Automatic annotation (TrEMBL), chains A, B:
Its cofactor is pyridoxal 5'-phosphate. InterPro entries: Aminotransferase_I/II_large (IPR004839), HisP_aminotrans (IPR005861), HistidinolP_aminotransfase (IPR050106), PyrdxlP-dep_Trfase (IPR015424), PyrdxlP-dep_Trfase_major (IPR015421), PyrdxlP-dep_Trfase_small (IPR015422). It is an enzyme of class 2 (transferase). Pathway: Amino-acid biosynthesis; L-histidine biosynthesis; L-histidine from 5-phospho-alpha-D-ribose 1-diphosphate: step 7/9. This is Histidinol-phosphate aminotransferase. Homodimer.
């Protein structure tokens, strides 16, 4: 409490992101970054733009980046919105589509930023419990609501929902905006982008922080029919005309144009993931099926907190959420094969 | 109006930034960018960070950038906030310090983004008229209010208010946050940063887009006592954990460390400005005294709109605001000596 703070500042419980130690002494598997650097073409594009033109504002409309995204996703450029990471795109979306009084709905176990956006903008929300196995039941989302947010695959569980299930949620909420947050879609799922033109209520949000190896550059994208994108532009232009800087815009464009690199990186990560899952199972872990670049795993005997602390002592950072239902799970990012070999070794030491 | 839009999206009138043509056929003097590129040390710092580490999130706390700012401004690092341009810092500040019901106050002629932030967050505001000569009268800001925003120097007028006048506003609002928006302070004014430790209600906001030649990288800074910075961090961390990307953070740090380059650039611009003012006076312009990198000028015979259109036809972009009291003024950014020579020539052609 402070007399100079607004009511919101006094009341809000901010989001806490995964630890970002500024030294490099950890094997860092706590924020779902890629173990691989960005495409060489991204580096080249940034280098090319690092010149005196940085004195000039960026294109406020990010036209080149939008065109590259439109081409990649087979949409029109006016069906694309670009922001400073998918967190900013989500924050704008809450303000663009949801009203305070009609509660929006999202899963009880999901991205823990959603409730914070609700608090920030005073938008009521209701959390829909996941099933016992952490799956989403589409029928649960047909209740009266002011909007829907579904992460697919879900985080931190890693579980994926088939497009035909997503369609059920869209169909039963045709008058409300349904946000499908696809931060992890490139690791084995099918994107709902393919049905954007069928659903006037569908907004798909993606990020370049995971599969495109660009967490450091902050690029998020939203895709939907033009009237939804227009709403996001209205909010953005009432907040900050230029949220994507010149180098981020160039990086994002180059990343979208290099399809081959995306495919290589995600294939490697999927491959590593499946190997690690097998090894963890041998160590008595129960694992939620994952279509992401992380694994949500629970040991049959040792508590989540104990494993988290002991791994940290051994210089391995993973993510642990001290929350009901999931406190015995660890969320472990898929790193390089070498990183994962080290993690398995450390776990064997701890569990032996 | 659209049924998928929130009430705010339907109601708001977004800010319109100066035109950003993506070709280079204009002499561009409409958005107060620097005619000079950023410091060579900035370019070097960006190049050094353009590597595989872009796969990793930035430091969410921007510690290195904050330390450099603390050193430059003679403050502590916890008295510094960093954001994605001063527009984002302003947007966060409105939410962090102001409440909907108690109207905040700012000048009637000033940065046209302020009313938009008010609308975005449903914060009431009252605009205090500038005097006939466009100066700010500190006594006008001693009325009952929920907070104060003063741009100093003011934009688009260019007029500067002495620190002793700023102190009057701070003293008469000691229970309310007073934001001094110093986007243009480096072009001849004295910053209120020097009195941050004397006033628990003072927040100073600056940008690297103007004097530090980095509009393309989006770096804004706020300075104030720790309790004010904490409020901004709370709001930022409820919106987007990482608003400043790795390259922007490196660029900002390097820009702050190169004091000499800042001095050289601002001296050149001040010098050009004074020459241009003299030439415009000879062409029958009335000019508001400027401590910025732009001039606010009105011709004695020809209307603002006519001059704006004719200059545009001749490939010179300046800013014209079609608003009461200022519709006969042009806001002309100070470009290079060569740019300004061209502008004077074009004006002579138009006025002959």
């Amino acid at each position: 409490m402070n007399k100079y703070w607004s009511n919101i500042t006094n009341q809000i419980e901010p989001y806490v992101c995964g630890e970002q130690p500024q030294d490099k002494k950890y094997i860092k598997l706590n924020t779902n970054e890629s173990p691989y650097g960005p495409s060489p073409k991204v580096i080249e594009a940034i280098n090319k733009c690092t010149n005196d033109d940085l004195r000039l504002y960026p294109d406020p409309n990010c036209q080149r980046l939008k065109s590259a995204a439109a081409k990649y996703y087979n949409l029109k450029a006016d069906q694309i919105f670009v922001g400073n990471g998918s967190d900013e795109v989500l924050a704008f979306s809450f303000l663009a589509f949801f009203n305070p009084d009609n509660p929006i709905i999202f899963p009880d176990i999901s991205y823990s930023f959603y409730p914070v956006y609700g608090e920030l903008y005073n938008i009521n929300y209701k959390q829909i419990p996941l099933s016992e196995d952490f799956s989403i039941t589409p029928e649960d989302y047909s209740c009266e609501n002011g909007g829907v947010v579904i992460p697919n695959p879900n985080a931190p569980t890693g579980r994926y929902l088939e497009i035909k299930e997503i369609k059920k949620i869209l169909d039963s909420n045709i008058e409300k905006v349904v946000i499908i947050d696809e931060a992890y879609i490139d690791f084995g799922g099918e994107s709902a982008v393919s049905i954007v033109n069928d659903y006037p209520n569908l907004l798909v949000i993606q990020t370049m922080s995971k599969s495109r190896c660009l967490a450091g550059m902050r690029i998020g994208i939203a895709m939907g029919q033009k009237h939804l994108i227009d709403a996001l532009e209205r909010i953005k232009n009432s907040f900050n005309s230029y949220t994507v800087d010149r180098l981020a815009a160039a990086a994002g464009e180059a990343a979208l144009l290099d399809k081959q690199y995306l495919k290589e990186c995600t294939s490697k990560i999927i491959n590593t993931r499946e190997n690690v899952i097998n090894q963890l199972k041998e160590l008595d872990f129960d694992i939620i099926p994952s279509k992401t670049n992380f694994i949500f795993a629970k040991h049959r005997k040792v508590s989540g907190n104990e494993l988290f602390m002991k791994l940290k002592e051994k210089a391995v950072l993973v993510r642990h959420f001290n929350k009901p239902r999931i406190k015995d799970y660890l969320r472990i990012t898929i790193g390089s094969d070498h990183d994962m070999k080290m993690v398995i070794e450390r776990l064997k030491e701890i569990l032996s």
